[in-house]
Amino acid sequence: MELTGKQIVVTGGAGLIGSQLVEQLATDNDVIAVDDLSNGVRESVPEGATFVEGDLSNEAVVADIITDEIDIVFHLAAADKYVDTDNPRQQFEANSSMTHTILERMDEVGVSNIAFTSSCTVYGEAGEPTPESYGPLEPISVYGATKLGEEALLSVYGNTHDFTVWTFRFANIVGPRFGAGVVPDFVEKLDDDPESLTILGNGKQTKSYMHVTECVDAMCYVVEHADEPVNTFNLATQTTTDVDTIADIVSDEMGLDPEYSYTGGERGWEGDVSTVLLPIDKLLELGWKNELSSDESVRRVARELLAEL
Ligand SMILES: NC(=O)c1ccc[n+]([C@@H]2O[C@H](COP(=O)([O-])OP(=O)(O)OC[C@H]3O[C@@H](n4cnc5c(N)ncnc54)[C@H](O)[C@@H]3O)[C@@H](O)[C@H]2O)c1
What architecture (CATH level 2) is domain 176-207+238-308? Predict the structure, then answer.
């Protein structure tokens, strides 16, 4: 589907990834960014888009925003994964119900294109590379279980309601925004105490960190070039970075040499998958290619965050 001259809704449009996506799409399309600002920042929504503050768990808000004039919905709104351990039931119910409401409304008014931000957490603790065809999918966090459930709902609409669905299984996406995530966490901790740094787990957790600008570029590319009823793509860098290396990169960018201490154990938190190997052959075969490695993305975002301090 060509992303030019379209009427587009971006849910979670004031969030880290949503605001970048809105910026990219708004150059050639009419974009409505919707966000309840539970984790988003109003100021991050670019001028060229229409912003609607609204809670998408409310059916009336969804009905107002998704009309028959919309060509495609990019559905990014989700309760933060870090609330998982605090209230997993609420997170599961809120996110799955919101996605179901959006799909039902789209079906009702004849909007049949949806791009959805899933996560590599659907693969659980695979312990081996996980291409999109990997199974069985056995998540180890409620966040991952919720994403898998939402993917299943989307599959129903793709396979039986004539929808075209693009599902993105993200690695870690990093960008210039303070909040949750290992890079901003280290920048903030070292800003508070330049002498020492507490690292969650054993520092060996190894994952892909993809810069948000590359992430939204890849998302748009896939929507423009893949046209099966259900298009599922891993989105990641071609290399990985371990947590100790992130600490080294952030320390280096801050000109510091702190003493590291570890909370211990293989995981950063309960439900954390310590090693994520996310092949992106399918994305490369479609013709999109990364410019940044995982280490380079971490370094770039560390610099961007430091510039905001
Ligand atoms: N950042 C990552 O590393 C990563 C990894 C895997 C998947 N994802 C997924 O990508 C999407 C975007 O992630 P992000 O990092 O930009 O997160 P984010 O928290 O910055 O963005 C999500 C936005 O959704 C909004 N939102 C939440 N509930 C809402 C509701 N009921 N109604 C309206 N708005 C609501 C929040 O205010 C927030 O602005 C999410 O679905 C997330 O689960 C992100």
Answer: Alpha-Beta Complex (3.90)
